[in-house]
Amino acid sequence: MDGQSHDHRHGGTPKTAIIGGGVIGLSIGWRLAQAGCDVDIFERGEAGKGASWAAAGMLAAGVETEPGELGLHALNFASQKAWPAFAAELEKASGHQVDLRSEGTLMVALNRDDAAQLRYTYDFQKAHGIDLDWLTGAQARQREPFLHPNLAGAVFCAGDHQVENRKLVPALRAAFLAAGGKLHEHTAVAAVTTAHGKITGLTIGDRQVAADVVVLAAGAWSGEIAGLPPSARPPIRPIKGQMLALRMNLAEPLLRHVVWTPRVYMVPRHDGRLIVGATTEERGFDTNLTAGGIYSLLEGAWRSLPGVEELPIDEMWVGFRPGSRDDAPIIGSGEIDGLIYATGHHRNGILLTPVTADAVSRYIRTGEMDEVARPFAIDRFAATSKKAAREKA
Length: 393
Description:
alpha/beta, FAD/NAD(P)-binding domain, D-Amino Acid Oxidase, Chain A, domain 2, 2 domains, eight-stranded mixed β-sheet, six-stranded mixed β-sheet, about 30% helix
């Protein structure tokens, strides 16, 4: 569909309805409203209180790069590079701080086996141009003195940062509203409406809302919206994550960098909270905190940072990452004219906010998809299904 002229556009400003008011929906809405588009966001709960609120806010394009994910790596890096300018513009537009921090990220190895695995990943990432430093255990403890004294080694990634996602949410909300967007909270979308293969709007309760373009940005709930044929329904499932926050002494925080351990990550906040995450569970929309989940987080943190056992628990929660079939996002158009996907960001929703907002808003306004986002269209799943069917035959 790239480059074709969409007949749903009216003088370049189509009436757009966004399903989902998390950071993805809010940021796309902000970009569209900034450009003078008529845009409404419909959110089933409170804006930004789903996965966006549950997240840890890591911008970890470097340390997240793994063999087999190089296509996603390019998208992650483009978004990470966009973050400083995006954060500055958002703070100015909203009057809210988002606490973008740039201390960098440490990955630590606790024993010889961990160190071998870390060295393998380090070599792979270095070979793909990621700027990393190998540290001895002693060098890692110069940066973070409270880490375990017997660390076997560590890697420092200066380019991987963090943002306070719970400040990002109100900032995006304020910027969207200030730009003229309309936000409808506690307003569940029952169905998408179409006619002749083209979007006509939404069903909300017993009323119809007309729209030229619908953006499906409902995170883990994106596959649940009625009104779409099976082939147009995004293959998204919820991936449960349990997380907790500990309370550090602000005068002498236990940790200053984001730290990845073999089992958990730890993210220190300016307010003294230390986020510890996260389990990865295929449990549907199960909101239960479990003894095993919380135990695994605390034990994983304690093995690298023994001092955590003294810290009070501040909060514990569950979030649902929107996982696609290949764990990469779904961005752009599909078979239904006027339906745009912006979902399936899995564990990279916060990281991918700037690039998704820019790519989707630009596509809606011009019909052109950014090169870096093009591989993430929903039709890649149809191609793999056909290939699987051929192999079966």
